[in-house]
Write the structure tokens for this entry.
Amino acid sequence: MSGEQQAPPGWYDDGHGERRWWSGRDWTDYVWDAASGEQRIRPMAPTTEGMSTEGGTAEATAVADVAETGTAAAATAAASGSGAGISTAAASASAGGYWCPYCRQTGTLGSRGECLSCGAHARVQEIVSDSGWEELPGAEDMAHIQIGRSSVQIAGDYVPIAEFSLVDGDAIWFPHYKLTYAEEQVQLGKHADGNGFLNRVRSGMTMTLLSAQGPGRIALSDNHMGEIVALPIDDGHGYWVRDHVFLAATPAVTYRPHKNDLWLKFRKDNGKETEYEVEYPLGRYDELFHAQGGPGLLLLHSPGNTMFRDLGVGETIRIPPQALLYRDLSVTPYLVAEYPSTTGWFAWFTTQNYENRHLWLSLTGPGRVAISSKYEKEHAHPYPIVDGTVQFHRW
Amino acid sequence: MEVLVCSWCRLNNAPDATQCATCGAPLDADDKVSDSGWREAPRLKDMERFSFSGSTLQVEGKYVPVAEIELHPNDHVYFEQHTMLWKDPQVPLAQYNLPARRRAHGMPYSVLTASGAGRIAFSRDAPGELVVMPIHADTELDVREHAFLLASHAVDYTFQRIKGLANLLHGGSGMYLDRFFAKGEPGMLMLHGNGDVLQRTLGAGERLLVEPGTFLYKDASVTMNTVALPGIKVGLLGGKIWVAEMVGPGRVGIQSMYHHSSSED
């Protein structure tokens, strides 16, 4: 539908009897179930068609209702397609394959029962908390992840190592300080990502990125207890990722720092003079990773345990800003400052105590958000917020 | 007579054994070896026991494990002072007789000896795993400084001063390597590796580049040299990236959690 005007985000008929959420660019996995009055996750078949203002055009095939079944067997039997986050190539090549709820790819299972796209063991049972957070198991010990003709194997439980086996001509890129070992024949060099020196400094990305080209084996790890999370990215799609958790990526994945517009302005008044300070709780620059020119693989090292949830359209949750590990780009972030209620004669004094304020990152769907249980906890700023992209919530 | 050989320490066990009597490795679990030949050190199960000399060692905990020893009256172990977690009051402590030259070079910690009978426990304050390295008569093992948790009395200790300016400045292993060897009878050495511990055996002349911070131990037959990656300059001043080049034959052990010398990330 190139050349036609794209419809704004909203619920539309996808051409196959489903009311499906259109992101403004792509069909998503979210459909409206009129019978229950709830949103459902229902991936659709791959399509190159878009959504024009004239109406739905996608050649979709409704498949597994993951929200209803939640089992690998059911998903395996029914999954075949893709919406916003499913590889069209993988889906079309493996109808009837295993649809992985963790990486949202359709493919085959490895010899250890692991998803060959992300290394997570095939889900046979949901590990979902009562509130809806699901554990993201990460790539399990000795699991393989296939990257074209090359592969990566995960070794270890506590601080796992990602061991790449690169065939001739295949490459990866990574921060230099993640290197654990390399075989002699692996060609190591500087990775040219197109970002200038200043861009890297401002974005907080490591100054030195290395590339490793096969043939040979090379291994990478971080220095925190945690899990390795593999994110296959379809061509043209991307993720927002927390600073310093990036472990490695294939060449199709590009990194671009993007100015972050989530900020706060504090007034620091010491009685004699007043100063203003601007802070960016998520950093001055966002780390955005996109796949261009083909699908790619992004590996993260998530400190602690990882949990995720798929937000429906308009669904909102609040998390500490530092806990966010990654999110779909369709998720909208915003800052919220929440103040506890105060009563009694001491109330005026407590309202002046800004250290009891809690700063949240509010995330609104549709899309996936993932958090890690280990993150840097910050004390509340003892100064009043006078401006910023923030909503105030007072009890 | 049918025996079950432990794939970690290579010693024989009864055919129905589920755990190696010498090193505690589980015998009823598959070895975890990656495609490239790195083998994960056997994970000692929580509350598992094994014997050395006449004493018994029990492992407690999963993330920051504790080694608890019931010392036989004729046994003693030595250890770095600050790794001692608790002990029975009656367990006597004595200063370990370090090589004089090492003391002269200002060893930054005190090594103590605990003698039986009684209980004593050790741990390091970092998440990781305990690795049992049986030391046979023909074994000489070089270990990164401050990685050894304890050693039995049959294991002797000396040190190797790291030579070469590049090794000292960029090797990330300090000025010394601890060397452990058996005086006569076999002994037991226990290491604490940060994160996960993996071991690979290099053939004669086989080379491997290892991030210096990951190095945990090696056979004395393995040569370690710190080298700069050719053709790569970093930072405004054109600094180099240094790696440890390991040349076989012998075993190399690495730990997956380490402090990178040129990064705080």
